[in-house]
Give the backbone structure.
Amino acid sequence: MGQGDAYRLAEEAPADWWEVEALYDTCFAPGRTALSSYRLRDGVAPVGPLCLTARDGEGVLAGAIRVWPAQVGSRPVLLVGPVAVHPTRQGEGLGALLIFRSMQAARRLFWPRAMLVGDYPYYRRFGFRRLEGVEMPPPTNPERVLGIELAPGGWVGVTGAVTKWGSAGIAVPAARPAPRPD
Ligand SMILES: CC(C)(COP(=O)(O)OP(=O)(O)OC[C@H]1O[C@@H](n2cnc3c(N)ncnc32)[C@H](O)[C@@H]1OP(=O)(O)O)[C@@H](O)C(=O)NCCC(=O)NCCS
């Protein structure tokens, strides 16, 4: 079976929160929340329709993706991740399915660009490329700062420090940040 077709994808519900946290604890090294990318998420609501869970036929959580809004200068950007697939389910295409579906939903919501901190050898297959002149809070290896255009030219002329959503020139909506035209 390929492409994760044994799994049901759904928007993450509030009741899923701690189960997804437990999955992330299983999949990532201890201390994951000390990473600088987590500081960009503190106190910011994730973009609900882009946060997905994948459950098998018995309802067991197999993978999840969360996505937050952030900004580069005063321009909106999606900060993709964490994305994780349970170790016993890896290599079935589920990670790819979660990323593809989440970015597909982001395009439908007119987000122009997305970024993440991750392994280029994995994310290149989705169209992510190394971002020049886009600075994550230290300590972050610039080689791992990757971006994807969700609209043509989405990253053209967009450089600077990545900061928390609402920190400079962007009004903070209540719960689900809406994309904004540039
Ligand atoms: C990364 C992750 C989400 C991928 O999920 P998955 O369902 O196993 O991925 P897919 O089935 O879509 O793709 C598997 C392929 O990706 C490759 N791959 C997985 N992680 C990789 C990485 N870090 N670098 C390069 N290739 C990677 C596998 O070798 C496999 O290659 P193949 O298609 O040639 O066999 C999953 O391995 C995971 O949860 N890892 C731990 C948490 C993590 O590192 N998350 C990403 C944060 S940057």
Summary: The mean pLDDT is 91.
